Amino acid sequence: MKETSLFLLIGAVAGWLAGQLMKKGGFGALGNIVVGCMGAVLGGFLFDLLGVSLKGGFAASLITALVGAIVLLFLIGLIKKEQ
């Protein structure tokens, strides 16, 4: 249960930070969690693909989720522009 709560907290923070950095604003609590958690998965995949390994811990998880969330928001922005 503790790991799930920590994952959701990291997702919320990463989603909010990514929204601020990408000038998209916040997405509400649930939206931030979704963007951040999807970003965590995407960031982990990208870091693994590139051979980047951050040592474990809260900060490493937050950085991974933040990078993934930024990439996710960038890709969503590209898709929205094409429509």
Task: Describe the structure using short key phrases.
single chain, mainly alpha
Structure description:
This protein is mainly α and 83 residues long. It is built from three helices and no strands. The chain has helices spanning 2-21, 28-50, 58-82. Helix 1 (2-21) packs across helix 2 (28-50). The radius of gyration is 12 Å and the shape is globular. It starts with a helix and ends with a helix. The model has no long low-confidence stretch (mean pLDDT 89).
Mean pLDDT: 89
Q: What order do the helices and strands follow?
A: HHH
Number of strands: 0
Portion in beta strands:
under 5%
Question: If helices are DSSP runs of H or I spanning 4 or more residues, what is the number of helices?
Answer: 3
Low-confidence stretches: none
Q: How large, in whole angstroms, is the Cα Rg?
A: 12 Å
Morphology call: globular
User: What assembly state would you assign to the polypeptide chains in this entry?
Assistant: single chain
Largest sheet: none
| Helical fraction | over 70%
Look at the helices and sheets and give the structural class.
mainly alpha
CA(first)-CA(last) distance: 41 Å
